[in-house]
């Protein structure tokens, strides 16, 4: 029988489940984290947990928070088990280990207007406000600017005391802190975005400027927004993950499985102090950009290389894609010949070595990371992870055929059916527009590239656009595997 997870039952868990060595009752909050998904709990929360296990950072505990209805359901699940989480590391060799983390000690009530969130963010003890709100959640325009015209931003500018976005809540709390003399907090993005701290600054300061320019200037001057690179493959939790936790003897309503690899590279710019995450393995550096470019273009971009064709061919997981000879060969050729040349080395890692590393990580058969999850929100991920490399390749007159094929597979996937005739359920916030464009592009491929909010002027770049047209026509005429063979034969 599995033991229900709670503070009261930690001593009852099996001996092979690692549990916190610190007294949870002695912790005090220093961080509010908005967006309590699996990635945060397997990554940032774990680094802090390991510091606490070493007797450090006991005044930096995490309060969870969110602004969506789904966050309220997550709050209920986590509070029922005292905000503890079971992390299960899955080694490619089949080895498994389980660890209960306790660095999160509470979860802010999720309410319309976000009054509880604003109140907690305004607490003097809170010195860092961190976020994992997905790559597409930062209200950017197609050219990367602040989207002041988005309905959420228009609402928050008109109702600054009852905002509906996380950024509106941050601005409201910073106004209160300034007025009450409590000082700023560090705003820390933990999402997969190039220059994520700079983008977070743009959103927070841009929103504040819509209603209170003096506050915007105060935030811009006094708050810090460190850039960072985050990395750990963390699948979604479903019935098999719940069962895996039970196999370890733990009844956890929200366990997390993950690969046995983590990386966190951070700029050391914290206006109100920080935990010593480096003592748990994180890296502080002035060269975050080099690390994040390597990771975003090769790992996140690599995910987009294989996920869409995997969906088209009914290949269920990323590991299964890597076991498919054509998809694996396509992955390596695009990565090594078309993406890696635009990535510079970082200490102890060349782009080619990094491709080999992520090849092994993607191929881990124990990580059941679905192609559907990885293909989700392509309307954010392709512009962020793939298209910057296309632009670099066009400028430097280097190959783009494989990158054009990546985009053709995305267009084919968004049509909404697999080659076996099964339907692909909507898998993007912009699914309706994407599907309409994809169906038009079946007869006129260039229609896909005319989506300027994603592609900008790339539809006018003949070398890329012509290759895209040819690939999409071939995919519809001869099938995805024929297109893969044709590319691999080049």
Automatic annotation (TrEMBL):
The keyword Oxidoreductase applies. Residues 287-472 form the Mannitol dehydrogenase C-terminal domain. Residues 30-279 form the Mannitol dehydrogenase N-terminal domain. InterPro entries: 6-PGluconate_DH-like_C_sf, 6PGD_dom2, Mannitol_DH, Mannitol_DH/Oxidoreductase, Mannitol_DH_C, Mannitol_DH_N, NAD(P)-bd_dom_sf. Pfam families: Mannitol_dh (PF01232), Mannitol_dh_C (PF08125). The keyword Transmembrane does not apply. Coiled coil: none annotated. Keywords: Oxidoreductase. One of its GO terms (molecular function) is oxidoreductase activity, acting on the CH-OH group of donors, NAD or NADP as acceptor. PANTHER family: MANNITOL DEHYDROGENASE 2-RELATED, MANNITOL DEHYDROGENASE DSF1-RELATED. This is Mannitol dehydrogenase family protein.
